[in-house]
Each structure stands twice: as structure tokens, then as C-alpha cells.
């Protein structure tokens, strides 16, 4: 799938099992939205085949649309329409809609029900978008970055609702660049980068084994100046060291006893006493880093020093 000369998705091949949650995970610009929009019938691929519920999203559009729900990354409503009016209108287009009052209540839309769409916050637009995607009791729902712009409470509610619809047999396909979201929700994850599929599997399959791990080091008193660089020199070029605050560091590196031994020796040489020294499980971030040499996402809440200004990684729709 290309936009002019720009190839956005190239040779991507993936299948989604009915009744499961599938996450398409990748960094900005990886081709996630393009993939979804192609499945939804909004984009026509130059090559390849797409079948959704056994139907061609272009040729069989009229038959497919009543069976799928779509949560767009942005837009999808008239700017002046009130949130609840929009939801009621969408419900009226379906034969057996869900109870809109229940959706308004569950998604915390009551307070902004009379607010025109253009004045809703990013998170409120997302919640309304999710309600619109679910109101027609779809067999399959596509959700593009479902929790972008949501606060933690709304994020949890969204996860719960997606899990509930899966329990009712609905198939969910979501895009995200949040590893924790994919890891928490998805039965199967497809990691894409630069328009190509680079890994697929269950969260456990993807994070099992591998050569790297995350070591968490917390010491009894502040690290000396230049500690991350010094520790990186000690551990070698395969290792990445990030200082979280004055007494803790995260180290991504080879998952072996030698690395732990070197960290311990470095502490001794620099007169700090490890209070926590743990070898953590490999994360999806590690998987992505191993496969591409680049980072998928910086988990800002974990990795930024405590003094850093609040980030909006989970707060700005992309
Ligand atoms: N309408 C368009 N015209 C030209 N290029 C486009 C268009 N839409 C997307 N692209 C390009 O195609 C590539 C894939 O974009 P896409 O939106 O599918 O990625 P994404 O993985 O969903 O990214 P994000 O997480 O930022 O939403 C990007 O390089 C993007 O700039």
C-alpha cells in the first residue's frame, strides 16, 4: 500500500483469529493505521488481498459495514454535534444497538454528553469513538490507538470493555505503540516496522528467551557523577544504561551472570551498596530493539529522571 511514491505497507501478511484480541504494535509511521484503514475498506491496496470476515472490504462493503465497528484515530463526528446526540444517531443506524445510556455511563461520557464534538478533550473524543465503534454490536471491531489521550482511569475502562467484548465473542484488532497495552490485552501481537511485519506471537512467545534482559539497580546512596557512562564502559557496547533517579538505574543488556557480576563489582569500586539488583523479564521493548536496533517506545514514566517535566506520551493522540 503506497501513498504516491511513499510505500507505507509492504508485503504485510497476517491473520486474525475470531474472538481474539490482536494488537498491531509499531512505532509512529510504521503503517499501523494504513493497515487498519485498508481492512476497513477506506484504502485500496495497489497489490495484495484483504479479507475481513471472509469479505472483500471494497467489493462487499455494503455487506461488511453493518458487521464491523471502527474507532478511528481522530475525527469521525461532525464538529458541532453533541457527544450523546452523535452516539444516539449512530445507534439509530443499527438494527440491534447496545443501550447508549449504558455506554455513556461505562465510558464516563455523561459529563460531556451535551458538549459539541469539537470542544471535547482528546480523551473524551476517544471514549466517544469507542462507544460509536461498539454501539452496533459488531462481530469485529477495529480500534486505532484506543487509549491515546486517555487518563489512567479511562484507559483501564477501555481495556476492560475490550476484554468484555472479546468475552462476548467479538474479534478485536487494535493498533498501539504502547507495549504495556499490547502485552496486557492482546492474545496475539504483530510487531510492524517500516511497513513490514518483523515478529508475531503471543506476548509470552515474543518475550520468552532471547539474549537480553533488564537489570534494575538501586543503591544505598547517590551515584557519583558520570555513573551511567562509567557503568556502560564496564559492561561493554551491548549494554544500555539509564539513570532513573539519583539512586536507581535500568540496565538493558545480556541476560547472564557475568553482567550481574560486573554490575556488582562496579558498585564495589564506586563505593555504593546495591539494595536491589534484579534481573527482569525480557520486554517487548527488548524484542523490538533486538530486531531493529532501535527503540519502540520510551516508557517515560519509568525512565525519565524524577525531576523531568510530566510527559504526554499517553496523552496526545498521534
Ligand atoms: N495520506 C497519506 N499521504 C502520504 N503519506 C501518508 C499518508 N498516510 C500515511 N502516510 C505515510 O505512511 C506511513 C505509514 O503511516 P501510518 O499512519 O499508517 O503509520 P502508523 O503506524 O499508524 O503511525 P502512527 O502511530 O504515527 O499513527 C508514514 O510514513 C506516513 O507518513
From TrEMBL:
Concerning Pfam families, the annotation shows:
ABC_tran
| Keyword Transport in record | yes
Please indicate which superkingdom the organism of origin belongs to.
Answer: Bacteria
Subcellular localization, as worded in the UniProt entry? Cell membrane
Quick one: where is this thing mainly located? Answer: membrane
Give membrane topology per the record.
Answer: Peripheral membrane protein
> Mind listing the GO molecular function terms for this protein?
ATP binding
Q: Which residues form the ABC transporter domain?
A: 1-219
Instruction: Name the UniProt key words of this record, in alphabetical order.
Output: Antibiotic resistance, ATP-binding, Nucleotide-binding, Transport
Question: Sorted alphabetically, which InterPro entries does this protein's record hold?
Answer: AAA+_ATPase (IPR003593), ABC_transporter-like_ATP-bd (IPR003439), ABC_transporter-like_CS (IPR017871), ABC_transporter_ATP-binding (IPR050763), P-loop_NTPase (IPR027417)
Q: Which PANTHER family match?
A: ABC TRANSPORTER ATP-BINDING PROTEIN (PTHR42711:SF16)
Quote the protein name from its UniProt record. Answer: ABC transporter ATP-binding protein
What is the species of this protein?
A: Nocardioides cavernae
Amino acid at each position: 500500500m503506497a501513498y504516491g511514491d511513499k510505500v507505507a505497507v509492504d508485503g504485510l501478511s497476517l491473520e486474525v483469529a475470531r474472538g481474539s484480541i490482536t494488537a498491531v504494535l509499531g512505532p509512529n509511521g510504521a503503517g499501523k493505521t494504513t493497515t487498519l484503514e485498508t481492512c476497513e475498506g477506506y484504502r485500496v491496496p495497489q497489490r495484495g488481498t484483504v479479507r475481513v470476515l471472509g469479505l472483500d472490504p471494497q467489493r462487499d462493503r455494503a455487506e461488511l459495514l453493518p458487521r464491523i465497528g471502527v474507532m478511528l484515530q481522530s475525527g469521525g463526528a461532525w464538529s458541532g454535534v453533541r457527544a450523546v446526540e452523535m452516539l444516539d444517531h449512530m445507534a439509530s443506524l443499527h438494527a440491534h444497538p447496545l443501550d447508549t445510556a449504558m455506554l455513556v455511563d461505562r465510558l464516563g461520557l455523561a459529563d460531556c454528553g451535551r458538549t459539541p464534538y469539537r470542544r471535547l478533550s482528546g480523551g473524551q473524543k476517544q471514549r466517544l469513538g469507542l462507544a460509536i465503534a461498539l454501539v452496533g454490536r459488531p462481530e469485529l471491531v477495529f480500534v486505532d490507538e484506543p487509549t491515546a489521550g486517555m487518563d489512567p482511569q479511562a484507559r483501564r475502562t477501555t481495556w476492560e470493555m475490550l476484554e468484555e467484548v472479546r468475552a462476548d465473542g467479538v474479534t478485536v484488532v487494535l493498533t498501539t505503540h504502547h507495549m504495556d497495552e499490547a502485552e496486557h490485552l492482546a492474545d496475539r501481537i504483530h510487531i510492524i516496522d517500516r511497513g513490514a511485519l518483523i515478529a508475531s506471537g503471543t506476548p509470552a512467545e515474543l518475550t520468552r528467551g532471547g539474549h537480553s534482559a533488564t537489570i534494575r539497580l538501586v543503591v544505598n546512596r547517590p551515584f557519583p557523577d558520570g555513573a551511567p557512562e562509567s557503568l556502560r564502559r564496564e559492561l561493554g557496547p551491548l549494554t544500555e544504561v539509564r539513570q532513573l533517579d539519583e539512586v536507581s538505574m535500568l540496565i538493558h543488556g545480556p541476560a547472564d551472570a557475568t553482567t550481574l557480576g560486573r554490575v556488582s563489582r562496579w558498585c564495589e569500586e564506586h563505593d555504593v551498596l546495591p539494595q536491589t539488583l534484579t534481573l527482569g523479564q525480557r520486554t517487548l521493548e527488548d524484542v523490538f530493539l533486538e530486531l531493529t536496533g532501535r527503540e519502540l517506545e520510551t516508557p517515560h514514566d519509568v525512565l525519565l529522571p524524577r525531576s523531568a517535566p510530566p510527559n504526554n506520551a499517553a496523552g496526545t493522540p498521534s
